[in-house]
């Protein structure tokens, strides 16, 4: 009666939290992936999955960005970013190669273990172990070495002719484009306050005729001297307004820069004075007056002699 009888079965242990593997041995159609790739802490899930997919493909398969975007639901941007991740850590190497026909293609090399040499990483096939129960066979006797006649020495080889040195290629840097500074804004000979106020009024009034030509006070102050040069050269306000507002580009991004360019390049020359116009106007030909040698009447002629009536009388008498 003092012995305790245990009739109830012991409680089952609680299953450990986490993943439980249910593995089946593969006999065909599988790819060996290292944990350094499957558990890489610096790669995204898209990059790890893309590396596994690339290593499972046969040699020569197309793995362009567009081809992968057609195969998977990810966009071309995410696939391109994943390829750059794999290329940064060494699982992928991409290079541009020129073929014999002149075409340039992309050569992609997938590495299942970055940093390891392919020749040294492949282990040699294991040698079959000898069974301890099988008795070892006696080794056959080694025959004595045969005596051979000495072979004649090989003829001396001519030293290869060294190739002529190639001229060194000198890389000349491409000339850099020089930015030409814009021409200075025209200035009047004497900028009076009245002339400056008139120029500023013309600039401020431009937005009534072209709403896109809205200028700030600083822009008007900077461009007023150029418009004053137009007014000093007797340009009318309507002429200035038409020159600055005609054929505006659409869209107009920098109105002040456009007006500065037009004020500088379309500046009219000063009006010519009276002295400059005298050489252009044709002069009237003045024939001098002569006195007739017969009747003393005045007539115009280049040479002295008789007037018209006297010449007629003389011709009639003759």
Characteristic key phrases:
318 residues; mainly alpha; Arc Repressor Mutant, subunit A; two-stranded antiparallel ribbon; 12 helices; 4 strands; 34% helix; elongated
Give the topology, please.
Layout: H1 35-38, H2 45-56, H3 65-71, H4 76-89, E1 92-98, E2 104-110, H5 118-121, H6 193-204, H7 206-209, H8 217-232, H9 237-245, H10 255-265, H11 274-278, E3 289-291, E4 298-300, H12 308-317
Antiparallel strand pairs: 1-2, 3-4
Helix pairs in contact: 2-4, 6-8, 8-10
How does this structure look, described?
Among the domains are: 35-115, Arc Repressor Mutant, subunit A (Orthogonal Bundle), CATH 1.10.10; 193-265, no CATH class. Helix content is 34%, strand content 6%. The protein has helices at 35-38, 45-56, 65-71, 76-89, 118-121, 193-204, 206-209, 217-232, 237-245, 255-265, 274-278, 308-317; strands at 92-98, 104-110, 289-291, 298-300. Helix 6 (193-204) crosses helix 8 (217-232) and helix 8 runs parallel beside helix 10. 9% of the residues are buried.
Topology, number of strands:
4
CATH hierarchy: architecture of the domain at 35-115: Orthogonal Bundle
Q: Regarding CATH, which class of the domain at 35-115?
A: Mainly Alpha
CATH topology-level name of the domain at 35-115: Arc Repressor Mutant, subunit A
């Amino acid at each position: 009666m003092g012995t305790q009888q245990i009739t109830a079965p012991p409680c089952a242990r609680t299953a450990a939290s986490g993943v439980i593997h249910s593995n089946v041995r593969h006999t065909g159609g599988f790819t060996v992936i290292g944990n350094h790739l499957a558990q890489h802490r610096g790669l995204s899930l898209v990059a790890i999955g893309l590396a596994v997919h690339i290593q499972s493909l046969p040699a020569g398969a197309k793995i362009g960005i567009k081809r992968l975007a057609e195969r998977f639901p990810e966009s071309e941007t995410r696939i391109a970013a994943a390829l750059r991740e794999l290329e940064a850590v060494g699982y992928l190497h991409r290079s541009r190669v020129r073929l014999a026909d002149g075409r340039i293609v992309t050569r992609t090399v997938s590495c299942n273990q970055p940093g390891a040499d392919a020749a040294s990483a492949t282990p040699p096939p294991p040698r079959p172990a000898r069974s301890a129960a099988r008795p070892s066979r006696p080794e056959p006797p080694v025959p004595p070495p045969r005596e051979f006649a000495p072979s004649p020495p090989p003829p001396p080889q001519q030293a290869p002719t060294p190739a002529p040195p190639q001229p060194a290629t000198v890389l000349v840097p491409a000339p850099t484009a020089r930015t030409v500074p814009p021409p200075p804004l025209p200035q009047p000979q004497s900028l009076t306050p009245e002339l400056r106020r008139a120029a500023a009024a013309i600039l401020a009034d431009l937005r009534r005729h072209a709403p896109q030509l809205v200028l700030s006070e600083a822009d008007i102050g900077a461009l007023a001297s150029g418009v004053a040069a137009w007014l000093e050269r007797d340009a009318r306000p309507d002429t200035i307004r038409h020159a600055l507002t005609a054929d505006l580009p659409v869209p107009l991004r920098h109105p002040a820069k456009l007006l500065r360019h037009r004020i500088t390049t379309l500046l009219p020359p000063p009006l010519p004075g009276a002295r400059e116009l005298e050489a252009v106007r044709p002069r009237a030909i003045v024939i001098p007056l002569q006195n007739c040698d017969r009747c003393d009447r005045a007539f115009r002629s280049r040479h002295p002699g008789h007037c018209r009536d006297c010449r007629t009388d003389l011709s009639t008498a003759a």
